């Protein structure tokens, strides 16, 4: 049966060891080839994506070139810039993949903001990793030279800078997503979790932070009445005791089991935790809704139970 599916792409679907634009576009060519069979099967597909590595790299470029004549752009503007560039690359890749498959579909990119709260505790406790990896010594040197910056160890892969990651409260423009999906158009939207903004009686203002794309993907899926939320990551399944001899892959888990694993600290705050929380929220938001965390390679086997599925 055809479904409306929201797919959230992680950084591994875009950025490989080569950070050039050409390499990222090539990676997205492969990524979209994994998605096209879902479209060919009749599903309505809405795509959103992260930007953690890209926005961190862009921020470094901005800071390196900072001068009175060419001032560095703030983080929220960098989010907007990477939302545009990655959305553009994804659109080109998806149009190419559809053409190779002989499918005539329009592809639309929507640049979107996400309203956040000024009182969000994330502004005082940054958790979102961005940019490249460093050794511990390099990270400590960077923190000593830049006391306002925080670096943490990221899932055994190295140290990365972390920035505030407020929760998305509202997504202006979701009605446009639903209308496009209703018209059979493949939608690419709210890249990088959406550009974070604050609203008050006087207007709307950008705020420095990077919203986690998994929580935004959940809000999109809930708002556009999706049937299935799929969060793509670098592993086939969510695991408990990750990296330990007792590591175990999870297939199907309930909301209560997921809550217990969260209480045990099984899921890192900047990586797997928002994925699990996003899936939990979506499943709880309506009857018959499914949520899966898995790799791109497993997308073709979703109907066979591939990945980790969270159920009520």
* SS summary, helix count: 8
Low-confidence stretches: none
Give the domain tally.
2
Strand order of the largest sheet: 3-8-2-1-11-15-16-14
In sequence order, what are the helices and strands, one letter per element? Answer: EHEHHEEEHEEHEEEHEEEEHHEE
Tell me about the biggest sheet?
8 strands, mixed
Distance between the termini: 21 Å
Mean pLDDT: 93
Q: Kindly estimate the percentage of residues that lie in beta strands according to DSSP.
A: 15-25%
Q: CATH superfamily membership of the largest domain, which one? A: Acetylglutamate kinase-like
Class from helix and strand fractions: alpha/beta
**Secondary structure: helix percent:** 25-40%
- What is the 3D form? globular
Account of the 3D structure:
By secondary structure, the chain is α/β, with parallel strands linked by helices. It folds into 2 domains: 16-125 and 164-226, 3-Layer(aba) Sandwich (Carbamate kinase), CATH 3.40.1160; 227-312, Carbamate kinase, CATH 3.40.1160. 36% of the residues lie in helices and 23% in strands. It has 8 helices and 16 strands. The chain has helices spanning 21-40, 52-64, 75-100, 136-145, 174-182, 213-223, 255-263, 272-284, and strands spanning 4-9, 44-49, 107-110, 113-115, 128-134, 150-153, 159-163, 186-189, 195-200, 203-206, 228-233, 239-240, 248-249, 252-254, 290-295, 308-311. Helix 1 (21-40) crosses helix 3 (75-100) and helix 6 packs parallel to helix 8.
């Amino acid at each position: 049966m055809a479904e409306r599916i929201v797919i959230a792409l992680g950084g591994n679907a875009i950025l490989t060891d080569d950070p050039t634009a050409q390499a990222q576009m090539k990676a997205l060519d492969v990524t979209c080839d994994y998605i096209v069979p879902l479209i060919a099967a009749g599903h309505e597909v809405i795509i959103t994506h992260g930007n953690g590595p890209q926005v961190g790299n862009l921020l470094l470029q901005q800071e390196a070139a900072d001068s009175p004549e060419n001032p560095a752009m703030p983080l929220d503007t960098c989010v907007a810039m990477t939302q545009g560039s990655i959305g553009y690359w994804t659109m080109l890749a998806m149009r190419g993949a559809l053409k190779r498959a002989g499918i005539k579909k329009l592809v639309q990119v929507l640049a979107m903001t996400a309203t956040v709260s000024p009182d969000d505790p994330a502004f005082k406790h940054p958790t979102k990793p961005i940019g490249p990896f460093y050794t511990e010594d390099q990270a400590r040197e960077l923190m000593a030279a830049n006391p306002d910056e925080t670096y943490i160890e990221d899932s055994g892969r190295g140290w990365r800078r972390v920035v505030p990651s407020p929760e998305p409260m509202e997504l202006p423009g979701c009605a446009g997503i639903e209308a496009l999906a209703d018209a059979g158009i493949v939608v690419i939207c709210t890249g990088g979790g959406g550009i974070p903004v604050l609203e008050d009686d006087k207007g709307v203002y950008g705020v420095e932070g990077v919203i986690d794309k998994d929580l935004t993907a959940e809000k999109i899926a809930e708002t556009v009445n999706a049937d299935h939320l799929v969060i793509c990551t670098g592993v086939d399944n969510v695991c408990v005791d990750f990296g330990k001899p007792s590591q175990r892959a999870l297939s199907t888990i309930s909301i209560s089991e997921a809550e217990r694993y969260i209480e045990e600290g099984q899921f890192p705050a900047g990586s797997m935790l928002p994925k699990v929380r996003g899936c939990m929220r979506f499943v709880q938001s309506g009857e018959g809704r499914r949520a899966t965390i898995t790799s791109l390679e497993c997308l073709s086997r979703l109907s066979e139970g591939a990945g980790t599925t969270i159920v009520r």
